[in-house]
Amino acid sequence: MVNSSSHPCIKDGWFREISDKSFPGQAFTLAVDSILYQAQSEFQDILIFSNKVYGTVLVLDGIIQCTEFDEFAYQEMITHVAMFAHSNPKRVLIIGGGDGGVLREVAKHKGVEEITMVEIDSSVIELSRKFLPTLSNGAFDDERLDLKLCDGFKFLEDIGEAGAQKKFDVIITDSSDPDGPAEAFFQERYFQLLHNALNPDGIVIMQSSENIWLNLNYLCDLKNTAKRVFPNTEYCYTMVPTYTSGQLGLIVCSNNDSIPLIAPQRSLSGREQEQLKYYNPQIHSSSFVLPTWADKVINK
Ligand code: SAM
Questions:
Q1: CA-CA distance, 240 to 212, in Å (whole number)?
Q2: 64, β-bridge pairs
Q3: Nearest CA to ligand 1 atom 27
């Protein structure tokens, strides 16, 4: 166990998530039962602590990435909205995702033949396997996995330059927020790289890092940036109490305009539905429906 007074985000036994840029004038706090790990990796500050309600909490550069209690709401939605919007995904690419949660969800799809995961920071994988084993739930040992430890942006640039013939059916960007190693993922050039790496009927999904309460115009800009590359772009969301305001947007895109992203393209078997706690076909479609004030801005 580590001395709690030594981490700048922890004061008087409380972890405080503060960002003057993304959410000025407010802070989200969680009581720290014990600090399990803290150190600076080559890429980011890593903090892992436990909380009575939320269980083990992973924090990168001061921002909560996941907690044991609510992680399924994020992992299931960012994975299955894209996977079920595709009629038969066989090759899947995950950019980021070091905690293993998205990998766990992709691995539930038995029709998937190859999963490539590109994570920049091997220490996030090692620490998540140690302190948050239910996140990956053994999926790092899945024989379909090809794990690459490098920058996801550079990976996409390299396969583009090499003229890779084998493209992806689904690409999931499960990155951290723009203030760090994931900065390049929120710009038009990244959407172009995704577009080039995707099969004609392919689907991409990414976490938007923001919410409709505090960053509506930013979300509108991000969606418009994606739309300049992908004619078929939609915004949907998931509800996660430990992300700012409890609401997190996802940007979903396809090269193919005729694919209705807002509806699953295939039905779930009883066994598939049994394995899921948040996602179902109804919530797939309803997650694209926004409150009026937000709809007017994001879907104008
Ligand atoms: N669910 C989380 C969220 O939205 O807060 C994201 C979790 S996951 C832990 C984010 C991962 O993206 C981290 O492991 C981080 O190392 C990885 N990452 C950040 N920048 C990256 C890059 N340029 N290439 C590949 N992975 C990256």
A1: 13
A2: 59
A3: 96
User: If you measure from the C-alpha of residue 98 to the centroid of ligand 1, how many angstroms do you get, rounded to a whole number?
Assistant: 6
| CA pair distance 77, 250, nearest whole angstrom | 9
Predicted TM-score (pTM) of this structure: 0.97
Please say whether the beta carbons of 191 and 160 come within 8 A. no
Let me know if 108 is exposed, middle or buried by CB neighbors in 10 A (0-12, 13-18, 19+).
middle
Residue 17 beta carbon below 6 angstroms from any ligand 1 atom: no
**Sequence-ordered list of residues with C-beta below 8 angstroms from that of 108, at least 6 positions apart, any chain:** 272, 275
Provide the 10 A C-beta neighbour count for residue 12. Answer: 10
Taking only the tens place, the pLDDT of each residue in 65-120 is 999 999 999 999 999 999 999 999 999 999 999 999 999 999 999 999 999 999 99
Helix (H, G, I), strand (E, B) or coil at 51: strand
Burial class (CB in 10 A: 0-12, 13-18, 19+), 184: middle
Sequence-ordered strand ranges (E) for the chain: 10-11, 14-19, 23-31, 34-40, 45-51, 55-60, 63-67, 91-96, 114-119, 145-149, 168-174, 198-207, 232-239, 247-254
The string of pLDDT tens digits covering residues 205-229 is 999 988 999 999 999 999 999 999 9
List domains and CATH numbers for the chain.
Answer: 4-67 (2.30.140.10), 71-298 (3.40.50.150)
Asked whether 95 lines ligand 1 (CB < 6 A), one says yes
